[in-house]
Structure formats: C-alpha cells, structure tokens
Write a structure and sequence with these properties.
Length: about 120
C-alpha cells in the first residue's frame, strides 16, 4: 500500500537522543547515603544524665550534706545508699550524674563521721 499522492522527497531524520546508562544497582545492605544527624541539644544531654539512680543518688547526697548543716541531724545509712546509687548510675552510663552523686555522698559521709565523733 503506497501513498497515492506520489513519491515524496526524503527528509533528514534526526537521530534519537542519547541517554546516559542507568546507574549500577546498590549493593545489598547499603541503601544509599544516609542523611546527616544534627547534634543533640546540650540541655537534653545533661538532663538525660540526671535521671533514675543518678537523681536518687544526688537527692540522697544533698540530704546528707544540707540536713546536718541546717538542722544538726546526722543520717547514718543514707550516705551509703546514695553512694551505691551513684555507682549504679555510673555503671548505667550516666557518668555526670553518678559522679555528682558519689561526691555529694562522700561529703555527707564525712559530715556523718564528724557528727559521730562529736567534732
């Protein structure tokens, strides 16, 4: 079936556009480049350190330091419990709160020893 109007002049056909080859497949386990994660706010990091056993140790330490100085009453076992809570906090990764608790309870233990010896 030819064209009834007759032969036509040959037209110059443009070549098809050249496309870039597709990228190679991503290897298994690598899902591309991960998005960067910004730094956490410093207040959130510090507040995370002052939870759980660290907070308990700090409260016990403050009680063993403040109460003897203000009301002249000495706690005998409280510094030991606060010291153990501070050690527990350090073992759980709450280093800042645990060290604060240990130092406060050591100060409270010294005040307790001073109160026991009558000094």
């Amino acid at each position: 079936m030819s064209d009834p109007t007759g032969p036509t002049a040959p037209t110059s056909a443009t070549p098809p556009p050249v496309y870039a080859p597709p990228p190679p497949p991503i290897p298994y386990g690598q899902q591309g480049i991960p998005q960067p994660i910004g730094p956490a706010p410093i207040a959130a990091v510090i507040l995370q350190q002052l939870r759980g056993p660290a907070l308990v140790g700090i409260i016990l330490g403050l009680a063993t330091v403040i109460v003897p100085l203000v009301w002249h009453y000495v706690f005998y076992v409280l510094p030991i419990a606060g010291f153990l809570a501070g050690i527990s906090a350090v073992r759980r990764g709450q280093l800042i709160g645990g060290i604060i608790a240990i130092v406060l309870n050591a100060m409270g233990a010294i005040l307790t020893l001073i109160g026991l010896t009558g000094g």
